[in-house]
Structures are given as C-alpha cells and as structure tokens.
Amino acid sequence: MYFKIWNLTQWAPLILPLLGVVLGLVGYGNNHFLPVEYEFEAWLTITLVLIFNGVIVGWTIKNLARRATMDSLTGLGNKGLFYYCLQNETQKFLKKSKSSFSLAMLDIDNFKCVNDQYGHPAGDCVLKQLAQILERNVRSTDVVVRWGGEEFAIILLDTEVEGALAFLERIREITENYDFGPEVQSQKITVSVGVVSVKELDQKLEEEDVITDVVKFADQALYQAKRTRNCVIDYAQLGLT
C-alpha cells in the first residue's frame, strides 16, 4: 500500500498542469462548440473546479509545511523549526536592537531506565506528557521543540537570565511533582536544564557562528546540570563567560 501511494505522489507535479490543459480545452470547446445558452453553466463549472482545486492545494501545502516542522510523537516543533526561529532571533540581537532571548536545553533524568523498566510505549507517554507540560506553561511568543530523544529546547523571547531561571525552576518543580500515570506506576520524573542568555555571551559571540555558539553554550550548561540531576544551571555559573 505504501509503495502504491508513493508511486502516485510521483505524478503530483503534473496534476496542476494537466488540470490546466483540461480546463483550457473545456474553455476552447465552450467558445466554439457549446451552445450560447450553456456558456454560463460551463464557465461556472470551471470556476468551481478552480476554487475547489485551490482549496485542496492550499490545504495540502499547509499540512505539508506543518508536518515538516513538527515532531510526530509530541506535536511540538522539531529542529527545523528551532533553527529557523533561532536564526531570526539572533539576527535581531546582532542588529543591536532591544531584542534579547534565552535558550534552554532540557533533558529527562534517567530516561533510559524508564524505557528499560516500563517499555518504550511508556517512555513515549512520558515524552508526550512532558511536552504538554511545556506547552501549557510557555508563553505564546516562546518556542518549544523536541530536540531529539528525551531532550527538549525552549527559546524564551525577550527574556534575560533572571526571568529564564525563574521560569525553568517552575517547570522543574511542576515536572517533579507531576503524576505521569500508571504507565510508569506514577514514578517520579525529573529533568535537568541548562540555560544561557545571549546578553551573557555578548562578548563571546562571533557573528558568523552565533547560532552554533548559543546552542553549544546551552548544551554545556545542560551537561553540568545532568551531573547533579533535577536542577537548573545557568551557563554563567560555569565561570566560562
């Protein structure tokens, strides 16, 4: 079945041109062969077909664009969306505007043990529920994505480190006290979080590598947090700024 669908998709680029040819022939026939009393009905039919076709194409493009930037398990954004948004924010920052942001990397502690003890379907339930926790608590302007595996990333717009730390500490506490359900026998799940504010890095950032550097520094903070577990670590705490 999959291969039949795949073979059909190979013809997708020809659908609109072929439809144009058909409608062109219909229009030609309408002008030369169709009785005058039926011209209105013919052109109305063509217009309705074009409208219907436009709706279908628009819906398809929207759906494909959504899937291209979405993680299929959690419904959060994926790395593609993350880098697109991060590039926009770093460009604003480098223009010396008042725009600032913080980047947080979040990892579920001992997630391998959850999978090993309760199975991967239970692990997937934990991932989906944590995604819901993050979605419910971020602002509409923030960007939260599944980075990969049991790791998530959050771009906190117009947020300096103090605000980011307060928000992430709240997320840590909510997660620690959340009942993840019978799939994991209500086992306590905790997260480790690393965060960096671009304003902390102003002197360290090089324009051509700013995106790579911001991600790297947030990841370094996360690495330190994972050594302790169930905590939030600011990159500045590492003494490397």
Could you write a compact summary of the structure shown?
This protein has 241 residues and is of the alpha+beta class. It is 56% helix and 13% strand.
Keywords:
241 residues; alpha+beta; Alpha-Beta Plaits; 2 domains; 5-stranded mixed β-sheet; 8 helices; 5 strands
Count of DSSP strands: 5
Can you identify the CATH class of the largest domain?
Answer: Alpha Beta
| Element-by-element helix/strand order | HHHHEHHEEHEHE
- What does the largest sheet look like? 5 strands, mixed
User: What is the count of structural domains?
Assistant: 2
What form results from the Cα inertia axes? elongated
Mean pLDDT: 83
- The level of helicity is 55-70%
Could you name the ranges where pLDDT drops below 50 across 5 or more consecutive residues? 1-8
Strand content: 5-15%
Neighbour order of strands in the largest sheet: 2-3-1-4-5
* Distance between the first and last residues' Cα: 56 Å
- What structural class do you assign from the helix and strand content? alpha+beta
Q: Could you explain the architecture of this structure?
A:
- With about 240 residues, the chain is α+β, with helices and mostly antiparallel strands.
- It folds into two domains: about 1-70; about 80-240, 2-Layer Sandwich (Alpha-Beta Plaits).
- About 55% of the residues lie in helices and about 15% in strands.
- It has helices at about 1-10, 10-30, 40-70, 80-95, 110-120, 120-135, 160-175, 210-230; strands spanning about 100-110, 145-150, 150-155, 190-195, 230-235.
- The protein has a five-stranded mixed beta sheet, sandwiched between helices.
- Helix 8 links the parallel strand 4 (about 190-195) and strand 5.
- The chain starts with a helix and ends in a 7-residue tail after the last strand.
- Mean pLDDT is about 85; it is low at about 1-10.
